[in-house]
């Protein structure tokens, strides 16, 4: 019984890991066009954004002051994974 539960938990964790990887495309940082200012930037493609578009550091910093973390994630991805805000 215990064994089954443990296996199920491991399978669920593996599934979550794959899903996160798929969503964040967490392997490759690419050259992207900022969807806000049109500038060239680098980041990881977010599944909810048009292919080749991301968010530049300047816009990320500015937009983050106007949106909730949840909205930021929905539109632009995860901070420091998909986009890199200016410090
Ligand atoms: Zn920008």
Helices and strands in order:
Layout lengths: L1 H23 L5 E5 L5 E4 L9 E2 L2 H8 L4 H8 L11
Parallel strand pairs: 1-3
Antiparallel strand pairs: 1-2
The protein binds zinc ion.
Please explain how this structure is put together.
By secondary structure, the chain is an alpha+beta fold. Helix content is 45%, strand content 13%. It contains three helices and three strands, in the order αβββαα. The protein has helices at residues 2-24, 57-64, 69-76, and strands spanning 30-34, 40-43, 53-54. A three-stranded mixed beta sheet has the order 2-1-3, with no helix packed on it. The longest helix has 23 residues, at 2-24. The protein is elongated and about 55 Å long. The structure holds zinc ion. Zinc ion is lined by residues 34, 36-37, 39, 56, 58-59. The site of zinc ion has 7 residues, from helix 2.
